[in-house]
Amino acid sequence: MVQRSMQEQLGTAGRALANWWRAATLDALIVGVLWLIGLELICVPLAPMWALLGAMLQIIPVYGSMLALVGPVLSVFFKGSDDWWRLGLVLGLYGLIVALEGLVIAPYVLHRTTKVPWWAALLGPIVMGFIIPFWGVLLAPPMLAVIFAFRKQPEVKPPQVSGP
After folding, report:
1. What is the DSSP letter of 102?
2. CA distance 156 to 137
3. How would you classify residue 127: left for phi > 0, otherwise alpha for psi between -120 and 50, otherwise beta?
4. Per residue in 49-72, is it b (16+ CB within 10 Å) or e — as a string?
5. Among 1, 49, 54, 93, which residue is least crowded by beta carbons within 10 Å?
């Protein structure tokens, strides 16, 4: 096996982290669009603002999605009508988005941008969350991106010199 220089290794890690950031941003954008479509269908006041806030808070693992729920719930609650079913629809939309994001969207997007296998993208944060609560969930996706970038890296071959 050929040894790589420190600069090549840092470059590989940097590209992996940049790809992870692209994946996290795309994941947040998809979640924001899901929030917008769902909140508009439910007729929640200020739906575009809550969807944008939901997309921005998606970057915060675990707690971001819960914080994104507060605005639409309060918006429906203080609308002034007795639309309890609408409040139930908002809570159901939250559950659907969280399930889709955690089980389908995040693993798929992480796999497509960083080549992390879907099973690792799904199980990595769960296992790391048990080992190091909160920080494990936060650090698992970028760590997986770096680990699989080094694992999937092609071997460096010395240049071939053709004969006379």
Report:
1. I
2. 33
3. alpha
4. ebbebbbebbeebeebbeebbebb
5. 1
Q: What is the pLDDT along the chain (164 residues), one digit of tens a residue?
A: 456 788 888 888 899 999 999 999 999 999 999 999 999 999 899 999 999 999 999 988 778 889 999 999 999 888 866 678 889 999 999 999 999 998 899 889 988 888 888 888 888 888 998 999 888 888 888 899 999 888 865 555 656 666 55
